[in-house]
Design goal:
This protein is an alpha+beta fold. The protein has one domain: Pemi-like Protein 1, Chain: D (Ribbon), CATH 2.10.260.10. The chain is built from three helices and two strands. A hairpin with a 2-residue loop joins strand 1 and strand 2. The longest helix is centred in the middle third of the chain and has 15 residues. The radius of gyration is 20 Å and the shape is elongated.
């Protein structure tokens, strides 16, 4: 098939709502048995990404708000210790 169909496949919903992800897609996404997935509905489409891809995307979003020279982790720890001391 031509390029138009390289990243598409047909699937059938089976018993219990099961859908088989084609082997080529699983390989391209490094999916193995036991791989955690995030599944969401967006604009009438069912989207599936690996949990690791979800983490990567969240980190990219957080990086947009990072201030050079400031550690968000250190600030969170400091806030939590202050809250604990007040209790």
């Amino acid at each position: 098939m031509g390029k138009l169909f390289e990243n598409r496949a047909f699937a059938v919903v089976g018993e219990g709502g099961r859908v088989v992800i084609p082997a080529a897609f699983r390989k391209a996404l490094c999916m193995e048995p036991g791989t955690s997935l995030l599944i969401f509905l967006e604009e009438g489409e069912l989207r599936i990404i690996t949990a690791m891809e979800g983490i990567r995307r969240a980190q990219a979003i957080a990086a947009e708000y990072a201030i050079p020279g400031r550690s968000m982790v250190d600030e969170l720890i400091t806030e939590r210790r202050a809250e604990a001391a007040r209790e």
